[in-house]
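Continuing the series of single-chain predictions for the mutant panel. This is the parent chain; the variants come on the following pages.
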Amino acid sequence: MPTNALIRALTPRTLARRLFRPLPAPAPLLTDPLHSDVPALRQAEIAAIYHGYRMAGDFYEFLRVGPQRVLFGLFDIAGRREDTRDILIAAQDTFRTLAPQLFAGETFNEPAAMIELSQQLNRTILRSAGVRSCPAFIGCYHEDVGTVCYANAGHTPALLRDQTGITQLEATGLPLGLFSHTTRSASTCALVPGAAVLVVSRGIVEAESEEEEFGLERVKQSLQQSPLLAARDVCLGILGATQQFMRAAPLHNDVTALALVRTGSRHLSPEG
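Parent structure:
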């Protein structure tokens, strides 16, 4: 139809509707990191629990990146929640976007992928906040072989409990968010059936009672006494021990625990 005929065919009301269509509503702005669902694992359990309201920069992440692999992480960005919210959202977006690419397939180098993920998260934090310390523990659990490839970026040592006792998974690099160029590395540990890895935030280690800190040794004692039957119970056990030590609900900082328990045919007794 010629243009003039088309214009004559349109009534003023129809023409107005076509010219002044309402714009689609903009996507809502994120005000907090997205909720991270706990993934179901084969012959293993994973859980993370924080106490009360989040006041500072703790957040945890779970992400399945393949048929056999699940990524998990506990981050502790320095500062109050209102100051770290945008940084947390940016870091979560990098984690969820990049990790599935780095950990895709079966023939990739797992430690190299973990180092690259750490480096990219470091750059994201620096772009979002300038210099802002973010200790982080990031792990990749392989369900078929029961291994955890991890990077500990200046975080409180994670604790591995198995039949040999408790082993500290120490830092493999500096906290994220401090330097644009720094050497990072990754390590791997094995979980036999019945073993567990526990990662706790600084708020647990630094919880005080009568000017005495709860400390990493008490975290070890709580893990050693746990029956390791469920990841959630391991987390609740350490949070309960912290509250009992303080004789009050922790309000000094974020208090978060993350546990991975490999189940199967054997469980360790509280004596190990």
